[in-house]
Amino acid sequence: MTKVAPSLLAADFACLLQEVKRMERFGADWLHLDVMDGHFVPNITMGPLVVQALQGQVDLLLDVHLMIEKPQDFIHQFYQAGAHLLTVHAETCPHLHRVVQAIKKMGCKAGVALNPATPLNLLEYVLHDVDLVLIMSVNPGFGGQNFIPAVLPKIKALAQEKRKRDLAFDIQVDGGINTATAGPAVAAGANVLVTGSALFNSADPQNFIRTLQQLPAGK
Ligand code: DX5
Ligand code: ZN
Question: Helix (H) and strand (E) counts for the chain?
Fold first, then answer.
């Protein structure tokens, strides 16, 4: 079954806890928290305090997507705040192997994200160490953008590599996921879908989540 991770970016921040509980009730699997620093991406969102405020309030895996420079300086704070999975961008880590090891050493799951223009081969020598690879299907910084179909072959190639090496990491896709784009992403090999605006604007979010979860997995 495909996992669905609602992106909080699209929630009503004036009542965040209710929004999160609502997503849990609707059957979401994970909760995706988008951290932006105004440097790596042209937007600023939330920090460890928001993770801490939600920690323990819901049973969802707290999936923290760090769109920040120097993520190594903040991983400890986010882990202490309650993050279960920390995903760093390969573009921000000249010492990617070191950062991945540091995350795992704390007892946290480690993910690596790639922007749409970043090639897969950057991950060649860390692939066996990661718990998740996040393929960005928009340029990070904002919710509500259109899915970039050019990333589909990248998802497919990653899934192939995963099979070839007999690895077990999750393949997450983030950006512009809706009922039209989710199918091709899952068929290409994604097993975790982040969804923000399409889910929160949906007339029937429960059904939206269920529809994504039931998409047939790719071969
Ligand atoms: C983009 C973020 C995404 C995004 C998802 O920088 O990483 O998580 O907010 O939202 P939608 O589904 O609206 O693209
Ligand atoms: Zn994200």
Answer: 8, 8
How far is the C-alpha of 114 from the C-alpha of 104, rounded, in Å? 19
- Give 22-37 pLDDT, tens digit per residue: 999 999 999 999 999 9
What is the structure's pLDDT at 13? 97
Site to probe by mutation for ligand 1, drawn from 65, 145, 201 as the one with most ligand atoms within 8 Å of Cβ, is 145
Q: Which atom of ligand 1 is nearest to the CA of 65?
A: 7
CA distances from residue 4 to 81, 125, 188 in whole angstroms, order as listed: 22, 28, 16
Across the chain, what does the average pLDDT equal? 98
Q: What is the pLDDT of residues 200-219, one digit of tens each?
A: 999 999 999 999 999 988 86
The dihedral through the CA atoms of 158, 163, 167, 168 has a sign that is positive
Whole-model pTM above 0.90? yes
For residue 11, give the ligand nearest its CA. 1
Pairing of strands 132-136, 85-89: unpaired
78 contacts 86 by C-beta, under 8 angstroms: yes
The token duo for 209 is: 């989540």
Structural contact between residues 205 and 7, judged by C-beta atoms closer than 8 angstroms = no
